[in-house]
């Protein structure tokens, strides 16, 4: 959910609105152009590995394609989001469509990154056991489950604006949208739980790889993997933590816990800025795609079967 700019005669948000129109243009236009190109290239690249029918890379490729599709949906929502901040939508259904597209892609990315991190941890911690469980069919089933979850979870979006006559897309949310029964499940299951899973899996993966330093002959590669895991976790936190902190602060505003006008204005600005810059994540993910594809190609060129390594080949790549 996006901020409700609680406009009243005593507290104006017009300055925040005007500032954000300029910021959105400056951030979303290059994000759209780069994100569109890079995510299409990522989908094409991982599809190529799927066509090669190499089991070592199949699970990772499916996860990455799924994440790239969610990122692509987010990219495609940006032009509509920018346009609807300048003009009024002709019908509420237009707002609902764009808001669904935006939030489905955001939380689809969150869940995809979380499961990629979990999959990698299991493959590093239990390489021989997980190797028999990570079939393309099962991985595809997990990705389909992610889509079902985010589609079902998007149901509250259809009541974002309630029966408000003067609506603005991504604004004027109904009181029910900010109720505890809607907000807390979204905050807990949509972010806090995935963040906890990713934090645990990333820290454990790094711990396992470091503990195996003296047992492996390819420490340089594993060291690069460790740095990539840490960087991926940092990107996740920077992209999504401020947004959900802003959601929580706006929840306090809408439920009367914060009443000072200056505080409301600052919270509105903080939330909109954090959401704006979190969209850059759809471009940052491309760096992870690059390292994964690079690792795949190195493995193919070197003809290194996954069984010869301490950890299967695709688990040692920089997957989110």
Automatic annotation (TrEMBL):
G-protein coupled receptors family 1 profile domain residues: 38-289
Membrane association type: Multi-pass membrane protein
Transmembrane segments: 25-46, 58-80, 100-118, 139-162, 182-203, 224-249, 269-292
Coiled coil: none
Keywords: Cell membrane, G-protein coupled receptor, Glycoprotein, Membrane, Receptor, Transducer, Transmembrane, Transmembrane helix
Keyword hit for Cell membrane: yes
Main location: membrane
Gene Ontology annotations of biological process type: phospholipase C-activating G protein-coupled receptor signaling pathway; positive regulation of Rho protein signal transduction
Entry keyword Chaperone: no
GO CC, alphabetical: plasma membrane
Pfam families: 7tm_1
Gene3D superfamilies: Rhodopsin 7-helix transmembrane proteins
Subcellular location: Cell membrane
GO molecular function: cannabinoid receptor activity
InterPro entries in the cross-refs: GPCR_Rhodpsn (IPR000276), GPCR_Rhodpsn_7TM (IPR017452)
Highest taxon, organism lineage: Eukaryota
Similarity field: Belongs to the G-protein coupled receptor 1 family.
Official protein name in the record: G protein-coupled receptor 55
Organism: Suricata suricatta (Meerkat)
Designated gene of the protein: GPR55
